[in-house]
Amino acid sequence: MTTNTIMNSLEGKVALVTGGGRGIGAAVVRRLAAQGADVALTFQHDRQRATELAAEVTATGRRALVIQADSADPAAVAGAVDRAAAELGRLDILVNNAGAFLLGPLQDLSLAEFEQTVAVNVRAPFVATQAAVRHMSAGGRIINIGSNAAERAVFPGFSLYSMSKTALIGLTKSLGRELGPRAITVNLVHPGATDTELNPADGPNAATINGFTALGHYADPSDVAAAVAFLAGPDGRYITGATVNVDGGFTA
């Protein structure tokens, strides 16, 4: 197989990446487009950044669609899926990336924070997947973005966030089984510490976090995007209901 074939392994496919305007989501958008997919992405607040990313995609010859949607709003989530399929003509790949990252001691967490976390990290992937499978044919790919905190919570204050990401394990396994007869795969990627604005590799806690990581350093967002692209591509066709840790050995 030539390099060109590998890089165009998603030629003719259409993907939707929720929360695709920055960080890991933006890296996923770039990688899927580089491999030949047309890409829709949702954002909540920063339209300029999302529009600039879409311009990067179109500069490569791929189509891009920017959709403003609050992932805490189920109607907005389902509407974004339907719009992506309608305007780009089909939907082959859904990446449930948008997330809420609310931390704090158990006694300080409010019910509103609980509801927000569950709405974005659990309900939104469920609603988006429910909408997406109505558009997908055989070969469809659903990829959830979780967190290594679901498997190893070494820091205090992660109870709410870890709980929400752990729920994606059950969702992924169950949907992998349910959608298998339709040849639609469902997988979960657990990033570890990744160099983003939310958790920069030169941040105040970086040295401590690196100490828990076998490789001793943060991931680049492109490392996570590479795993997503593999699962989205033809070589991922026999992987479903699986969890892939991209965490540098944090959970080893």
Automatic annotation (TrEMBL):
Record GO terms (molecular function): oxidoreductase activity
Keyword Phosphoprotein appears in the UniProt entry: no
E.C. number: 1.1.1.-
Keywords: Oxidoreductase
InterPro entries listed in its UniProt record: KR_dom, NAD(P)-bd_dom_sf, Sc_DH/Rdtase_CS, SDR_fam
Pfam families: adh_short_C2
Positions of the Ketoreductase domain: 13-212
Family: Belongs to the short-chain dehydrogenases/reductases (SDR) family.
Protein name according to UniProt: SDR family NAD(P)-dependent oxidoreductase
Naturally occurring in which organism (per UniProt): Dactylosporangium cerinum
